[in-house]
Amino acid sequence: MARARSSIRELTGRRRCHVPTYRLVADLNQFLRGWRQYYRWGNSTVRFARIDRYVEERMALLLSKRHARSGRGYGLKLLIGSGNRLGLRQLCSPGSRPMTLTLRRVSSLSRYRDNDDYAEQVIMPRSRWAASLSVLTGLSTGRYSA
C-alpha cells in the first residue's frame, strides 16, 4: 500500500504540473491496471477503494494547483464535472465498494416474559451475526420473539 501511494505521489507530483492531463491520466491508468492485475487474487476490495480515493485526491490537488487554486475542491469539481472522471480508471468498480457499516458484537440478548406472579428472565444465546442483524434490521430470530 505504501509503495502504491509513493508511486501515485510521483505520478501526480508538482513537477508534473506542466504535463497534459491526458498524459497524466494515461500514466495513472497504466499504473492502476498493472496494480489491479497483480493484486486481483484474493479479497482486496478495501485496499483498492483506499487507493482509488487516494488517486482522486492527488489528481484533484494537481488540477487545483494547475489552475492556481488552493485545496482540492476546484480539482474535484473538474474531475467529477467531466462526466467520465477525465478517463481515470478505478481499481474497484463502484458497485463493489466495501460497506462502511460496522457490526457490533452481541453475545446474548435477554427478554422478559410476563407472568402473573413474577417476571422470568429468558436468555437466548445467538451467534454474533444473527444478533447484529436483528439489532440492525429490527427483525427477531429467536424462539421467544414477541
Order of helices and strands: HHHHEEH
- Stretches with pLDDT under 50, minimum 5 residues: 99-110, 112-127
State the total count of DSSP E strands.
2
The oligomeric status of these chains comes to: single chain
In total, how many domains does the architecture comprise?
2
The share of residues in extended strands comes to: 5-15%
Sheet with the most strands?
2 strands, antiparallel
Instruction: Kindly report how far apart the N and C termini lie.
Output: 49 Å
**Shape assignment:** globular
DSSP helix count? 5
How would you classify the helix and strand content by structural class?
mainly alpha
Mean pLDDT: 75
What fraction, in percent, of the residue positions are helical? 40-55%
Computed over alpha carbons, the radius of gyration is: 25 Å
- Please give the order of strands in the largest beta sheet: 1-2
Describe this structure in words.
- This protein is mostly helical.
- The chain folds into 2 domains: 2-95, no CATH class; 101-146, no CATH class.
- The chain is 48% helix and 10% strand.
- It has a two-stranded antiparallel sheet with strand order 1-2.
- The protein is globular and about 40 Å long.
- Mean pLDDT is 75; it is low at 99-110 and 112-127.
Brief characterization of the structure:
This protein is mainly alpha-helical and 146 residues long.
State the main characteristics.
146 residues; mainly alpha; 2 domains; two-stranded antiparallel sheet; 5 helices; 2 strands; 48% helix; globular
SSE blueprint:
Blueprint: H1 2-11, H2 21-39, H3 45-66, H4 73-81, E1 108-114, E2 119-125, H5 128-137
Antiparallel strand pairs: 1-2
